[in-house]
Amino acid sequence: MRLVRPSIEWKNEHEDYLKEWDEPRMTPSSFNLAGYENYEVYLDALEIRESGYGKWVPSTNYFLVDDTDRVLAMVDIRHSLTDYLHNVGGHIGYGVRPTERRKGYATLILAEALKKCDELEIDRVLVTCNDDNIGSAKTIVKNGGIEDKSFIEEDGMVVRRFWIER
Length: 166
Prior knowledge:
Layout (H helix, E strand, L loop, with lengths): L1 E3 L6 H10 L18 H13 L7 E7 L5 E8 L4 H7 L2 E5 L8 H15 L4 E7 L3 H9 L3 E2 L3 E2 L5 E8 L1
């Protein structure tokens, strides 16, 4: 298992992953290809997003791939927090390919993302999940998450917030 950065060589695997996605909202949203003319345009937009330009905070995105170069999970590591990210998104957003869930990959990608946070000198990492995502909450706790006060979005969605001290 290894983390790799999105690049043109991962285009087909990224698209295959998205064909499996079973939720209306892509998690993390930085991996959503909808609205891009082609993969190169997506990569250019991702580079702008990662640079922290405009409304974005600097971030780093990775695929978790196995020995056969299959993308198993994706993670977006935000280097700092806005008010919105402090309440809802946190430092780390991750998602696991639907056919690969319940195999420990969420725990693994979060652990690997936390190592990247160490490199970025993020000492206190916020990770969030929706209230109904019991599996994600367990994954966060397994990686050292201590639950803080939840945040309630305007639509009533409850976001659970966990801090991980590094």
